[in-house]
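User: Study the fold:
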Amino acid sequence: MSSNGRPNSPERQPRSTAPHPRTPAHRRRATAAVASLAAAGVLWGTAPAAQAAPVHPDRHGGASRCAGRGVDPDAPIRYATDTVIKAPLSTVWKLQTDIERWPSWQPPVTTAERLDAGRLREGSRFRWTTPAPATPTTPATTLTITSTVRQLQRERCLLWTGPATGEGLRIDEGVHLWTFRKVEGGVRVHTEETWTGDQVEADVPTATRALGTGLEAWLDDLKTTAESRAGDGPAPPPLTRGARPPRP
């Protein structure tokens, strides 16, 4: 994740945060911090304002689910947001599920590896890392996040859970949900996450702000990368000898 938040675009409607000031992307990433099971790195001290609150139902009616399962309804730390990505669903899904390539488009993810072979599926496990700078109560460390896919419906939804651990810092359980829905002009991506654990629950507002910052940054990176790739388009075929380009 990243540190400072960015204002919400008309397409994005966070469920539990207030607007926050614009910060250049390079500065936002440079100050990425502590950790989220949602997106690598969160900043406890300068994250956007957010309050612990129930995850609201999404705009399509009903709480978000993947194969009947959602985030932890009892977790005190929670955040949800969404955006429309102007790219094919296949492009968005490929980016999100190609775990080992996360570091290529998410700067706060320093390493990512699959712990099993084959296509990502229910029961798949993966491990990834992110640096966590020092805070008033925790030392600088590197968080290792081990995630297990609990539900997956291809090009529709994905849910994983797992702990994040580092020297002097731990999130006992994060539950992270993603849903993908085709809409006019692209794909609406909705994401939610909850945290539990004594250390993060000791300061729920701060942890919630941190979680919100990370989710917003992840969604922003996903949108930017997917739309960039969608805009490239396929390369034109090479001309054969003697062939002429078509007339305008």
